[in-house]
Amino acid sequence: MMKRLALAFSLTFLAAPGWAAGAVASEDTLYSIQVRAVPMTEKADGMATYRALRDKGYLTYTYKAEIDGKPWLRVAVGVFDGIDDAAVFGESFSAKEKQDHFVAVAPVRVVAGDGGDFVVTPSALWTRAGGKAREVLAFDDPAPRGFAAPGGIRLKPSPDRKAVAFQYGARVYAVGLGDEKANLLTGDRDGFSDEHKYGPTPYWSPSGRYVAFHDTVGPEFSTNLWVARADGSELRSLVDNWVERRKAVNEYVSIRAVWEFIWHPSEDRIFFVHGYADSTIHVGGPIRSVDMAGNVRTMLDSDVLVGYWELAGPLRIEDGYLHYRKVQYGDNYISRTYTDKRTPLSDL
């Protein structure tokens, strides 16, 4: 029944050319119409077709394919949740644009928003809201390591599902359904990394006004915590672990790294695990908080020198408690025992 309803709704949104409203489940097989294919030696010609259709308001994308051992560029239009919908649109498209087409499986991912959808195609990110489809970010060619679309792009919806945030290479973006283009949150600052050691980043604040994210992450890096407004303004570092190294007499002092973090429901601070940046032994540290002015406080301390224990993620807030884990180390830190713990938010 849900599938039939989705198909019925998809036909009502053809005012946004080539967009089926029912295409909202990334795990579904989706369809497009392919309208052009050129060998890579004629890439400029294929890109001209892509730009012309995009500028007419069609949801258009390109992707690479190998035919008879040679690279080709394909140009496709639309996103549909059924072959029949794609075929109906294709006939209308060919009659209007005087271009041949055939229906093909679409290499795209769709994330449903509140009042529209976000579509990750191989060449760009698109939004659809109010019957209008728009390209909001064209992806790099070649893509940054590990971020080839659509599979390498992890869209994280805002609390109201009217926007998404995501990392692309060393950059972090946010975009709302009504935006003309994606907002670059990392600005022109250096030092942002394309790795994901501590789990997906970025994270939305409870109201959706702010996005928090790591900068450089990975072994032996002093990972810091940043925050920006979702419109790309007010970028600032909340936790700067390099301060410790700059102040240290011994340049080899073990510096800290922000590991996992989570917003407090009040949005006035963030809890985070403050681990060691250059450690292959430790998996945690104390749990600290930082407010929007950058003031850091220790909420729950660790004892690695005497008690041989630390606190670790995953961090979770539920039923008025901050949930975390206690890590007890054995002799020479070889063995580890994890115990689930929780502390009332009112005590923090």
Q: Which SSEs are present, and which pair or pack?
A:
Layout: H1 2-10, E1 31-39, H2 43-55, E2 60-67, E3 70-80, H3 83-97, E4 102-105, E5 109-113, E6 116-120, E7 124-129, E8 132-138, E9 156-157, E10 163-168, E11 171-176, E12 183-184, E13 203-204, E14 210-214, E15 225-229, E16 236-239, H4 242-247, E17 256-263, E18 269-276, E19 287-291, E20 296-300, E21 309-318, E22 321-329, E23 336-344
Antiparallel strand pairs: 1-3, 1-4, 2-3, 5-6, 6-7, 7-8, 9-10, 10-11, 11-12, 13-14, 14-15, 15-16, 17-18, 18-19, 19-20, 21-22, 22-23
- The whole-number mean of residue pLDDT values reads 86
Distance between the first and last residues' Cα: 48 Å
What order do the SSEs take from the amino end to the carboxyl end, as H and E? Answer: HEHEEHEEEEEEEEEEEEEHEEEEEEE
Helix fraction?
10-25%
Write down the Rg: 24 Å
Task: Extract low-pLDDT stretches.
Answer: 1-26
Class from helix and strand fractions: mainly beta
Main sheet: which strands, in order across? 2-3-1-4
**How many E-type strands?**
23
Number of helices: 4
Number of domains: 2
Content of β-strand: 35-45%
What CATH first level of the largest domain would be assigned? Answer: Mainly Beta
Which fold does the CATH topology of the largest domain refer to?
A: Lipocalin
Name the CATH superfamily assignment of the largest domain. Answer: Uncharacterised protein PF15525, DUF4652
| Annotated CATH architecture of the largest domain | Beta Barrel
- Summarize the main sheet: 4 strands, antiparallel
